[in-house]
Amino acid sequence: MLWDAARSHESEILADLERRFGVVSVTEVVWSPRRVERNYERFYSDLDVRGVYHVLNKGAGPSLAVVLWDPDPVVEVRVTSRGPREVNANFLDAKLRYREWFGGLGVHCGETPYETRRDLAMLLGEPDLVKASPGATWDGRIERIARDVTGSDGWESELDMYRTLNATIDYVVLPRLHSAGTSEGSDVAHGLQLLCDDYHSLHTILGARSDFRPPADVGGGFTVRVDGRPLRVGVRFVGDRFIDPSWASECLRSRVLGETGIFELDARNAAAVELYRSLIHRRPLSGPDAQLVSAAAEVVDPSCSRDPDDDAVDLGRSVLDRFLSDHGYGIVEPLDPLVPFVDTSRGRGAAAFGRAHGTPRRLMSAARHHIAARGRMTYLRVHDRLILRNPSIRRLKQLGRRPQSFSSLPHRAAGRLRGHRAAALKAMVLLVRGVVFTGRRYVCPCCGWSLRGFVGRWGTVRANSDGYCPRCNAKARHRRLWLHLEEHGLLRDGSVRLLEVAPWPSLARPLRRVPGITHVGIDLRSGGRHVDVVGDAGFLPVRPGSFDIALCTHVLEHVDDDLRVMSELRQSLGPGGVAIVSVPLRMDAPTDEDPSITDPVERERLFGERGHVRLYGPDLQDRLESSGFEVRVDWATGIDEGIRRRHGLRTDEHLFICRPSKPGFRSWRDGLGPEGSV
Questions:
Q1: Are the beta carbons of 471 and 459 closer than 8 angstroms?
Q2: Using one digit for the tens of pLDDT, what is the confidence trace for 452-505?
Q3: Sign of torsion, CA 449 454 458 459?
């Protein structure tokens, strides 16, 4: 794809593509002006990137869709913006080459067969275009079509909708619940349910309108236009606890393509899900409903025998309990508050009370989300319109003082206090904020607090899914690091000497509470009780081999000589030691640095923040290895989706696990003599 911003180099790019690949077709795609932003959002399905930023970086004019085939593909694992993947390296290298030509993001390509089918389905409505004409050659004509992303005007039929989903995302249709006196699909908790592993992508590809805008991050009800009529759909994902996350993953793995071209559950899983939803996600059962429960129980366990006098609910519950126990699944309360939850294991009286109490609780939760989200959407809509009309307005925040908001009051007050007064104020703000944001949706692993959402650094109003912990102020990177240390048992090996460069209180505090941990924090300034040594990370004032673990979290991008810091980290580790490094990364380009750039505004534009001196790429691993480390990358994209959402983790916080690999390695200060270490 050559977006509008790259069309100035169209002739050079097309000529290069013809030399390297076989060009099947070239099509100019024209989008409706009022739908450009939405088309970008639906095509990319990025959770955190709104359409306005795609327009600013890629343009809003006609784009060029070039369909290629590679006669000699090179398939290998490469690091991409979505983590390490097996891709066609020829296509990926071509995309990066063309982006370097004009210094922008105006070129996109499908790097895998799945991505190619998805792009063709969304842009041209023909996922099998290349397969239908292998080896075809382009006649030099550029065809022009005016169409928005597939599904923008709704879907001609349900089959048309599912055909696009088959080419774009992994999904499975869960069995619908039918109830006497209830029309099919009238209740989104009981009607059509689509289970997937990428919630945001599914509802954006569908072009679905959420019941509560913007869509809640816990799944929920949507409306899709099919054949000119609204279709009610429940969108569920692995980790939303609609059913047990392990069970949801197994349902996606074992799905089968039905005769109608729709991915469905196999017979036993379908009956088990129907049984689970009938007993756990619905109101008291009527006579016909009880017959459906009995029929589902017999499919799940053909050996079960039912006496006519037996209660259908008791029979179904016993079969369901055996099924869940045999597979290691459990009964879980959905995160979506609009899904009824009735746990009959506590008795029918408790279940009846739960039904009565759950209805007003679900309605209040939905209303609260709707009111808060509408205000946020209004602000973003006005913000985006202003940016589109005058892109230079993005730089206004860099002029003069930044606007003072209510949410920044604690931070401003803390800046005017010093010592124990500032510490007392911060502790009070964190305690009050932790109480305000108490909930059950998330858990911070650093402090163990149960939360309804994360916040901005000193935010007191708006909640988000991966910000700071309201109680201890831990960022997503610190929660990620703590979980890694726990998962790999690095804190349970008895006496551990741990060095943290630029310690963050929310991580240093729990580390110091772990028995057997000797935590040493080093920073350029004495900025709190967790800084034990004032010194430069480029010349650590510690003896070589003094530590078992060294943590360096988002530090290297701030220092001029990062190779020296890496060498010092290696020198500080004893035998069997490990250093854990994390930095901001962009996965589609090598490290970008320019020592001549000293202007803070320019640094922010190029490297992300005013204090950054570079923006790392995948070649960070090579830099670490050149400093004497053996490096393994713990990719954040490999984290279980349920764990990621539960703890508010980000998909771009990768950890570089470094162990000394060269016993004879000489660092820059090996020739300094005895005074080289203190």
A1: no
A2: 889 876 555 567 888 899 999 999 999 999 999 998 888 776 789 999 999 999
A3: negative
Take residue 549 and report the two structure tokens written for it: 């673990």
Provide the 8-state DSSP code for 133.
Answer: S
- Mean pLDDT lowest for which of 61-70, 118-127, 246-255, 520-529? 520-529
Q: What is the full DSSP assignment across 522-583?
A: EESS--STT--EE--GGG--S-TT-EEEEEEES-GGG-S-HHHHHHHHHHHEEEEEEEEEE-
Q: Return d(Cα 372, Cα 375) in angstroms, integer.
A: 6
Distance in angstroms (rounded) separating the CA atoms of residues 80 and 86: 10
Both tokens assigned to 485: 């240390």
Looking up tokens 């290998």 gives: 76
What is the distance between the alpha carbons of residues 413 and 390, in angstroms, rounded to a whole number? 34
Task: Give every strand in the sheet of 63-69, ordered side by side.
Answer: 63-69, 22-30, 143-146
Q: Which two tokens stand for residue 491?
A: 């804190």
The token duo for 523 is 């920073």
Whole-prediction pTM:
0.60
Contact indicator for 15, 9 with CB cutoff of 8 Å:
no
Phi, psi (5° rounding) for residue 657? -95, 115
Helix (H) or strand (E) holding 99: helix 89-102
**Domains of the chain: which residue ranges?**
4-146, 158-353, 403-474, 477-676
Please write the tens of the pLDDT for every residue from 321-377: 889 999 999 988 888 777 877 765 555 444 444 545 555 655 665 565 555 555 655
If one counts every other C-beta atom within 10 angstroms of the C-beta of residue 456, the result is: 17
- Give yes or no for residue 173 having a pLDDT over 70: yes
At 622-649, the pLDDT tens digits run 999 999 999 999 999 888 888 888 999 9
Angle at 328 between CA 326 and CA 332, to 5 degrees: 120
Q: What are the helix (H) ranges across 301-418?
A: 312-327, 348-389, 409-415
First to last CA, the chain: 57
pLDDT in tens, 547-587: 999 999 999 999 999 999 999 999 999 988 999 999 999 88
Q: Which CATH number fits domain 477-676: 3.40.50.150, 1.20.58.760, 3.40.1010.10, 3.40.50.880?
A: 3.40.50.150
Residue 678, C-beta contacts closer than 8 angstroms, at least 6 positions apart? 541, 542, 543
